[in-house]
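As noted in the main text, all predictions were made from sequence alone. Below is one such record, for Probable 5-dehydro-4-deoxyglucarate dehydratase.
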Amino acid sequence: MFFPVTPFDAAGRVDVDLLGEQVQDRLGYGPGGVFPACGTGEFHALSAAEVATVVRATVAAVGGRVPVIAGSGGPLGHAIQTAVSAQEAGADGLLLLPPYLVSGTTDGLVGWVEAITAATDLPVIVYHRATARYTPEAMTRLAGNPKVIGFKDGVGDIGLAQEIVLAARATGRELALFNGLLTAELSQGAYRGIGIPLYSSAVFAMLPEVASAYYRAYVGGDEQTRVRLLDGFYRPLVALRDETPGFGVSLVKAGLRARGVPVGPVRPPLVDPTPDQEHRLTDLLNTGLRLLTNHDARAAEPVTSGIAR
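Prediction:
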């Protein structure tokens, strides 16, 4: 699953043309779906009007080739506004990011989801993270809503995730189940074991060659390749990511800039990497490319310079 960054121009505005170019390029690597204006796309830092702009540009670039699942969520009014604009833009569904600031009861969280689903005809995937803590009971109830089609786990409690999977199965619904942890490739082996076969890949946005090679190894049972990529690329990337809060997004944008794509900085409160971290990221990108065999991905030029300015 492809989660594109939101590029900003020199004036800090959404760079619609660059967004379209990046989406079209990444479609060549065969993502199963495109998720604009979500976590990697800095949903938290976008106005409702900017979310609508990002979703429209993405839908136009995709041209119906794969589903487009738009980000929505936050305060209820903002969530409804972005959901409605996503439907108007031609999106195929919504990923519901957590409510803003407050946590409620199971009744309250279910009510929040149902208020958003009532506002449009779009199906939704709920995101289990931060202030949105779904229980097996909540997912059992939400499975009764035909517009709720999926569950994405961003908490990382394997035991609870297993309970939710079992509860969802007991309803008879076939929900789409996603691993949504940061750098999900590192944990996907465990998630597959509890019945969550899908995952989102932030790496796909900056290094689709490696992300695609990992996915092919994952679905094809090539454990030697999968472990080689985990050990040589993903594990050190996670170590760098964990140095600074918010680097799950910041490093992806920095990686694109390192490859000559002027996507601009992240917006506050996130911060961009230091020059030293940028250079180490560049080294990691090259390491990832070197790990690929000739048949793993399209030919790619090595990243030979620092971050493009």
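The longest helix spans residues 223-241. The CA atoms of residues 109 and 133 lie 8 Å apart. These features were considered when defining construct boundaries for the mutagenesis experiments described in Section 2.9.
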